[in-house]
Specification:
Length: 181
């Protein structure tokens, strides 16, 4: 059965991480906590300063799997990132290559058995962000918490629903105790 091109693109954007593409292309990433951004690197766009970029002007949001370069305004998804890493190949060429990286799953996933950690990471990020918005004077506290959470996330195995759910509850309780409105 042929796959719908839109569903292929959606699955690529969901399954292929920009940070992994950067590492695969030999791009050195620096871990940061600046707004929604989690990493930064030198922009691989060959049109950025005619390929002579020396500063880390490209910022990656690993949670939402997108990026933005403050030097050349290149931005968007893992597909766009792959395109600039490969001398601005076409969108269709990038999708063709990246589709080989993923396994297509036509079955409906049961959230309790095949849980995607990404969903809970996103929920935790939103919880932390909401507390940060209501406690603007404590931005450093939330930046430190974000960095600590990244380290914790790295130690949790994929599809470990129990651990992710437990972490979410702990974070909620911690924030409620620490930052009572």
């Amino acid at each position: 059965m042929a796959k719908d091109p839109k569903s292929i693109v959606r699955q690529i954007k969901r399954d292929i991480k920009i940070t992994e593409l950067a590492e695969e292309h030999g791009i050195s990433l620096t871990r940061i906590s600046s707004g929604n951004f989690t990493h930064r690197c030198t922009c691989p766009n060959p049109n950025h300063k005619m390929g002579n970029e020396n500063t880390d002007s490209l910022y990656i949001d690993a949670i939402n799997n997108n990026y933005y370069c403050y030097g050349c305004s290149s931005n968007n998804s893992c597909i766009d990132f792959y395109m600039i890493c490969n001398n601005n190949i076409s969108f269709s060429e990038a999708v063709s290559v990246l589709s080989e990286y993923i396994e297509f799953d036509d079955t409906i996933k049961d959230n309790t058995n095949n849980f995607d950690n990404f969903t809970t990471k996103l929920e935790i990020s939103r919880i932390v962000f909401n507390y940060c918005q209501s406690n603007k004077g404590r931005v450093r506290d939330f930046a430190k918490l974000s960095i600590k959470l990244d380290e914790i996330f790295d130690d949790i195995k994929p599809n470990d629903y129990k651990k992710m759910s437990s972490l979410k509850k702990k974070i909620k309780k911690y924030l409620e105790r620490r930052y009572r409105a």
